[in-house]
Amino acid sequence: SIASELGTMRITEQIDALEIMGVNSASFLILPKIISTMFFFPLLTILSLIVGMSGGYAVALITDVSSPQEYVYGLQYVFYPHYFTYALKKMIVFAFIITTISAYHGYYAEGSSLEVGKSSTRAVVHSSIVILMFNLILTKIILR
Q1: Radius of gyration of the chain (CA)
Q2: Nearest-CA neighbor of 4 among 87, 94, 109, 79?
Q3: For helices 68-77 and 31-62, what crossing angle results, to 10°?
Q4: Is the pLDDT of residue 111 over 90?
Q5: Which residue, 7, 90, 110, 136, could crosslink 116 as a Cys pair with Cβ 3.0–4.6 Å?
Q6: Which residue from 102, 105, 107 is spatially nearest to 26, judged by alpha carbons?
Q7: Is residue 114 within 8 Å of 132, Cβ to Cβ?
């Protein structure tokens, strides 16, 4: 959506209007998105971890697959606090990657509205590839 928004602004010359007014359009439009995603992605990660563990506990309560005590023991048995901080560090890096690549593709979109869709698709593909590479790099560095 970042690439679509910025691409539409570029195609409809809204970014050009900001630059004519003397506004640094890149920092005005992109920097708040980078800061907000780098702040909220880790919060969403924490929320998803809580919801996932609560859902697992609810399944243990409702079904006879395992008891809630076994579920809690299993969580405690394999829990390392370092994994939690590792996940948050990765989310901060991934947020930066997703936002900057999407913003780049949207900011430099050219042509018609058809190009906005293409730039959004390119942003998703390039973000996915770069995230896979950085996931490998971060895993090698942090989990030594």
Answers
A1: 21
A2: 109
A3: 140
A4: no
A5: 7
A6: 107
A7: no
C-alpha torsion sign, points 28, 91, 97, 8: negative
Q: Pick the range with the lowest mean pLDDT from 29-33, 67-71, 108-112.
A: 108-112
pTM of the model: 0.86
The amino acid sitting at 59 is V
Give alpha helix (H) positions in the chain. 2-11, 14-20, 25-29, 31-62, 68-77, 81-107, 113-142
Tokens of 48: 């998803």
Q: Report pLDDT digits (tens) over 39-95.
A: 999 999 999 999 999 999 999 999 988 899 999 999 999 888 888 999 999 999 999
Q: What is the identity of the amino acid at 6? A: L
Q: Compute the distance between CA of residue 116 and CA of residue 3 in angstroms, rounded to an integer.
A: 8
Contact 60, 68 (CB under 8 A): yes
pLDDT at 98: 96
Closest CA to 115 of 105, 124, 125: 105
Backbone φ, ψ for residue 87 (5° rounding)? -65, -40
- Helix, strand or coil for residue 36? helix
Region 17-40: mean pLDDT is 94
Residue with tokens 């809580």: 50
